[in-house]
Amino acid sequence: MSKTKISILGAGSWGGTLTWLLSNQGHKVTLWTFSKEEYRVLSNTRALLRPKKVLLGRNIQITTNLKAAITNTGVIIIAVPTNAFKSLILKLKHLNLSKKIILLSATKGITTNDYTRPSQILKKYLPKNKFAILSGPNIALDVISKAPIISVIASGDIKTAGFLQKIISSKFFRIYINRDVNGVEIAGALKNVIAIAAGMSDGFGFNISTKAALISRGLIEISKIAIKEGASAKTLLGAAGIGDLIATCCSKNSRNYKVGYELARGKKLKDILKKLGQTAEGTETVKAMVSLAKKYKINTPIANAVYKIAVKNKNPKTVLEELLNRPMAKYEIEF
User: What is the domain count for the chain?
Assistant: First the structure.
């Protein structure tokens, strides 16, 4: 297959990792960052700020000029924080983006202000462009290790998904296709909330049985909301569902896990995020998760607990006590 020019918008850990991955496969890659300081460091050192020590080849173009970044490109991969997604899409719209360009969202989250997902934003503002969603159990540091890893590309257009599958797949990074955009996207966003809870479990010093309980109960909370939002239950059993949930809840390299761990150790969220130096999507997505649960009258005790701690600044130990003392449910799984 002939190589494709790919523009990656966002030079964070995931955007940088995808840049490294695709350039190593011979594609012509342009990496865009809005930060002049990030641009300066990347241009001078060719080393990613996150994950550290990952070097970018000299064949990769790095720029802060959005128009230059998307000129003559075939695919645009968007890897910015969720709450920056809409503003970036509006900028692309104002640049009269060619309808021939395929858009791939690598952003996992739900916006805080109006609770929209990347796919909904793309449909609204760039309706003529074909798009897909990339999601799965993909911790950036794991991907650069070249261990066998899988991911999922979801699109309502199977040809678009197949085209992107061929571009991104490699010997160690294998892509599966799914038509269920809602399921893949919602699972990828909401698992970050459960990962914060999993990090707190370890921070409290609990055992693997406790974490297994959190993951299984967390999957039920995610599933209830996802199905109400039009997702297929089958998707939640795949890599973008339970796979991503396990990886994010169990990896010490997961940003959301780190946030939860430090919260349980008594640290303040603002201090944790400052030290982290990156976006932890779950701290914002939890607002949307709790709101959607109220909309659909769904009981989500784990998400509610994370919300109380991360948003309302309640004491983690007090919230844990409330969680453990709540009335028992009649059945394990109720939909």
Answer: 2
Residues in the chain, overall count = 335
Question: Of 179, 211, 246, which closes a domain?
Answer: 179
- Mean pLDDT for 253-261 is 97
Residue 278 within a domain: yes
Largest CA distance in the chain: 61
From 86, 191, 211, 308, the catalytic residue: 191
HSE at residue 247, side-chain half, CA atoms within 13 A, is 21
Kind of pairing between the strands at 102-105 and 5-9: unpaired
pTM value is 0.96
Amino acid at 177: I
Q: What is the pLDDT of residues 110-163, one digit of tens each?
A: 999 899 999 999 999 999 999 999 999 999 999 999 999 999 999 999 999 999
Does 191 participate in catalysis according to the annotation? yes
In sign, the C-alpha dihedral spanning 172, 173, 177, 178 is positive
Say if CB 107 and CB 101 are below 8 A apart: no
Q: Is 30 helix (H, G, I), strand (E, B) or coil?
A: strand
Are 169 and 201 in contact, with CB atoms under 8 Å apart?
no
Q: Which domain holds residue 149?
A: 5-179
* Statement to judge: residues 106 and 165 lie in one domain: yes
Residues 6+ apart with CB under 8 A from 141: 51, 253
Q: How far apart, in whole angstroms, are the C-alpha atoms of residue 59 and residue 23?
A: 8
